[in-house]
Amino acid sequence: MSQEFSQQIQKIARDLTTILTKLRAKTDNLVQAKTDQKVLGEELDGCHLKLMELDKAVQKFSEQNGQLGKPLAKKIGKLTELHQQTIRQAENQLSKLNQAASHLEEYNEILELILRWIEKTKILVHGKIAWNSASQLREQYISHQVTLAKIVFKR
Question: Where on the tree of life does the source sit, at the highest rank (predicted)?
């Protein structure tokens, strides 16, 4: 029975270590990273359930077999620490993914704005520029003021 518990502990430890390794892996694909994060979260939840069941079984075994259960209880304690470390890593990764998504959204907004500026600049560069002297601009200004005054006084 003790050996069976040890095998289960090793299996959960391998699963948690695999999850932890995958959480630490870097990727450039945000969508894939979010999908992977969700899958790893589900795997982590599964490990947690197995760990809880195993902990109960080991406690029961320890009550019945005294000293034989102590080493198993220590291993369960270490496994629980590994589980907590993996949870922290998953939470940290999720936070970073959310932050990356926010930055990507902001980047895309800025990129869109810059592309619009570039388009407007191209129009200006390729458009015909009419150069007027200061006196011509003054005459045009006075003409617009007179027209505006006529419209306002007609009311």
Answer: Eukaryota
